[in-house]
Design a protein that fits this description.
The complex is a heterodimer of chains A (about 160) and B (about 160).
Chain A: E1 2-7, H1 33-36, E2 43-53, H2 56-72, E3 76-80, E4 86-93, E5 103-121, H3 122-134, E6 140-151
Antiparallel strand pairs in A: 1-6, 2-5, 2-6, 3-5, 4-5
Chain B: H1 3-12, H2 17-20, E1 46-48, H3 49-52, E2 66-67, H4 78-95, E3 105-109, E4 112-120, H5 125-143, E5 147-154, E6 161-164
Parallel strand pairs in B: 2-3, 4-5
Antiparallel strand pairs in B: 1-6, 3-4
Classes of the chains: A alpha+beta (about 160), B alpha/beta (about 160).
């Protein structure tokens, strides 16, 4: 039984778990003595990166870089930019003194791109995110949202089938 | 005599509809002279590629001189970043006096500031290295960010000239 939690913050690590857990996909249970001391790696269902930039060409190139990096690590990755760009405009007077009818218009454009990685372990996620974040071009902002898979806590029991 | 006055006069003369509607007036935005250079009679004024393209070509044929995330949706510290960029440019132009033949590009990645530009090869490489170290040290101290200076050199000033006007 698994529950999903959507968050961008760290979770407390689960205590050491022996062989009576099941994930949705089959995973080898670790009951060797040396692995009991190591913390269990987290599992991420998706990691979504929201990229914002002033230049769409730079954003698209970086999204291509991020998806290619994921594919080299055998992570399913894709990118899309369905969110409309935001044009923030303002109009100011052209002249220092008088000439109210003559203005100048400026605008800032923010373009959005999204990159998604699916089905990662914690260590892969850390490595991939670190690599992508270190290679962000100037003028591009990144926000990472992680969706983690966790075990159902012990004090919650599934309803009895009766 | 402005276009608005002319339009008012024409409407009061009660002209036909077609003639009245040919005149369109808005707040005048289309006459600009910023970032544009006047053609000289002798055609000997040199322009670099950046100077030759007027500001409306930014994001088409030109790109920006400062690259940072302060002007995005949710970006922080836009005014401080702009002032710091102006300071960097003034400092670089003063320290490397008469050596820059291009605009000074300021790029910010995470905590790092990268200053880029093209200089002439008119002083010895030893002096160039000294100036690089000096600029990096002082800028890092003033801006409290690791600053890297990335310069390219050009033998002759004429190598960056795009056209003569």
């Amino acid at each position: 039984m698994n529950i999903l939690k959507t968050t961008a913050s760290r979770f407390l690590r689960l205590p050491n778990i022996t062989s009576n857990f099941k994930y949705a996909t089959a995973v080898e249970t670790a009951s060797k003595p040396q692995e009991v001391n190591e913390p269990i790696d987290k599992l991420y269902k998706t990691i979504e990166l929201e990229l914002r930039g002033n230049d769409s060409a730079v954003l698209n190139s970086f999204a291509k870089f991020a998806t290619t990096a994921g594919k080299h690590l055998d992570v399913q990755s894709k990118s899309w930019n369905m969110r409309k760009p935001v044009h923030e405009k303002f109009t100011v007077l052209k002249s220092v003194h008088i000439y109210k009818k003559h203005r100048v218009q400026y605008e800032f454009r923010t373009y959005f791109t999204f990159v998604q990685y699916k089905h990662l372990t914690g260590s892969t996620a850390d490595t991939l995110l670190e690599y992508v974040e270190r290679n962000i071009p100037e003028g591009v902002a990144l926000k990472a949202t992680k969706v983690e898979l966790q075990l159902l806590p012990d004090h919650l029991e599934p309803p009895k089938a009766e | 005599m402005s276009l608005v006055n002319l339009k008012q006069i024409l409407t009061k003369c009660s002209l036909q509809q077609t003639q009245r509607s040919l005149l369109h007036t808005t707040a005048i935005c289309n006459r600009v002279q910023s970032g544009r250079y006047r053609i000289t009679a002798k055609k000997d004024f040199p322009l670099t590629y950046e100077m030759a393209n007027p500001p409306h070509q930014i994001a088409h044929r030109k790109s920006w001189n400062s690259w940072n995330t302060s002007n995005l949706q949710g970006g922080l510290r836009s005014s401080e970043t702009a002032v710091e960029d102006m300071f960097i440019r003034k400092f670089m132009l003063g320290t490397w006096h008469g050596l820059f033949v291009s605009e000074i590009i300021v790029k910010r990645q995470h905590n790092m500031i990268r200053v880029a530009g093209i200089i002439r090869q008119s002083i010895s490489p030893r002096k160039v290295y000294f100036l690089i170290g000096y600029s990096e040290e002082l800028l890092s101290y003033w801006l409290q960010c690791p600053t890297k200076i990335e310069l390219q050199t050009v033998a002759d000033r004429k190598d960056v000239i795009f056209k003569y006007i």
